Amino acid sequence: MSRSQLKEQLSSIPAKPGVYLMKDENGRVIYVGKAVNLRNRVRSYFHASADRSPKTHYLKQDIADLDFIVTASELEALILECNLIKKYQPRYNVRLKDDKRYPYIKITWQEPYPRIYIVRQMQNDGAKYYGPFTATWAVSQTLDLLRKIFPYLTCKREITGQDKRACLYYHIGRCPGPCIGAVSQEEYRALVSQICRFLEGKSEEIIDDLRAQMMAAAEKLEFERAAALRDQIAALERVIERQRVVSSALADEDVIAFARQDGDACVQVFFIRRGKLIGREYFVLEGTANEDARQIMTSFVKQFYDKAAYVPSEILLQSEIDEALIIQSWLRSKRGTKVTLKVPRRGQKKELVQMAAENAAETLAHLRAQWLLDEGKSVEALAELQEHLDLAHPPARIECYDVSNIQGKAATGSMVVFVKGVPRKSDYRRFKIRTVEGADDYAMMKEVLRRRFRRAVSAESALSRGFRAEGEAKPKEDRAARPDAPQRPGRTGLSSAKSHDEAWTILPDLVIVDGGKGQLNAALEVLDEYGLREAVPVVGLAKEREAIFVPGQPEPILLPRGSQGLFLVQRIRDEAHRFALQYHRRLREKRTLTSTLEEIPGIGPKRRQALLKHFGSLESIREATVEELMAVPGMTRRAAEQVKEYL
Fold first, then answer.
1. Within 490-560, where are the H helices?
2. 576 and 514 in contact (C-beta within 8 Å)?
């Protein structure tokens, strides 16, 4: 769409609240914004005064298409904006980096005997969630500590209290043993309630309760129980000693400040509960280079609390934010009571914000040093590969391929991509093997490579003609393999340019196939078919001695032990293997689940599909109650009872 056509379309945008999406010539969403008046806001980007902002100047140059979604209110627009930024990760928006990896602690409070484990996203399922956290290892340490103080269930067995014997964890004091009736359901839920209160920063309440229980046990001459409670109290007090009292207000507060340098930004969040600093987390932001402090803080607050498990009554900020009133209204709807956003100017709260800012600056300095170190290692690794493999230049883009199957069943292939030594997961692809029968790894590798390079050649041919063939579509599994690939929204406004998957058009600087000479020869045969043998260097990486087989050389190359080049190829090969195996297991589990469900009387194709969609795994179906099975569309009580009885 030309610039004049784009401006002509502006008149069709309604003067209503909503969200607008700006796209580049390939149809990718590059910016998401919200507005009370869509027409006025979008038109403002095309005024001469808009170029005063560096970000707007560059954004205008890349806009090729516009889309919009009308909402009923500004609050709805804010919520939709958060969801779309999370979905598309537009490069002109300030956004949380790697936000999909943040873990939560989940407590299945909706179950009779709640379990506790780490998950990657919250669901509206009645469970209690705590987080997000930025380090899985730190969450695991927290759960290990909690399990020593408050032993809880980790197994998935159905708890009846009638089991003949307990597992090892009961005997070493890491499980209270509800399976054998050592504790009642009420006692176990009371224990888990204490864990919840601990995670909410209510440690003093827990200690008071434990002391009362200890005194009552002693009065009843239950000295063993009293001693166990005494040890629990001592362990909790050691934890509390490490929690620093930072506020005399004894209130629940989050303190948010950030630091930035050369386009990098790091936000520090202090979690204060009842006046004590119970934890802190840092978050790295992208897209901050041409943004002011106000916009950075606004974007972070919206994205962080969109996924936060808990909203405190007061949030202390380093700087003012845009749309403060509507954000406060949104946070109130999440918390259920009033939430105050405040930029303290003096006193203890101002000092807290300064402390958070100092921590953010120190964390950013540490991260930048680590990033520079990693970048230096990548440069060294690529230079070593260029030298040992006799390449024309360092292999900036490396693609690695692997296949996974068990005797030819549920066969899959994977393509992982590393750019300058760093994984580019948006370019990863999975392949379901279609044409090969039996356990023929060489033929499977050929199929995967043919599908990859056929698309590269056809895409390049289309580009050279200046158009993309109508009706060209990506195979289903190729689309699904892109974990962060944006899904286009329903058309609500202006037309968009046809999108084009650029990842297929880029030829790699080096192809690695997992295997020895046989896999290498299979790859060379495919490259010959498409006339790419001279353009695309390819090697085979054998597991034995990490030997690298190169075309035309009878003996393999052995990279020096301890070299960065060897570490890189091992990492790439392991990632390809993990990615292929993950998809293979998913297909195998789905096939096993389907075949198992087919054996249950009264469960036809529609019910099987509904159960698969709702529960996802055989284990989840097995653990579900009759009522939960009945909640699946198409299921009756009789059918649910048959599933329960059969499994």
1. 517-529
2. yes
DSSP 398-419: EEEEEEEEETTEEEEEEEEEEE
Average pLDDT value for residue range 179-187 = 92
Sequence letter at residue 575:
E
Listing DSSP states for 285-297 in one string gives EES-TT--HHHHH
Higher pLDDT, 468 or 39: 39
How many Å apart are CA 414 and CA 325, to the nearest integer?
Answer: 48
Q: What is the dihedral of CA 585, 586, 591, 597, to 10 degrees?
A: 120
Lowest mean pLDDT, pick from 2-6, 241-245, 617-621: 241-245
List Cβ neighbours of 491 (8 Å cut-off, separation of 6 or more).
67
Q: Which residue has the tokens 């009362």?
A: 212
Please state, in angstroms and rounded to a whole number, the distance separating the CA atoms of residues 17 and 68: 10
Q: How far apart are CA 72 and CA 70, in angstroms?
A: 7
Question: pLDDT confidence of 473, banded at 50, 70, 90?
Answer: very low
The string of pLDDT tens digits covering residues 2-28 is 666 677 777 788 899 999 999 988 888
The domains of the chain, with CATH numbers, are: 3-93 (3.40.1440.10), 104-244 (no CATH), 253-366 (3.30.420), 389-484+504-583 (3.30.420.340), 599-646 (1.10.150.20)
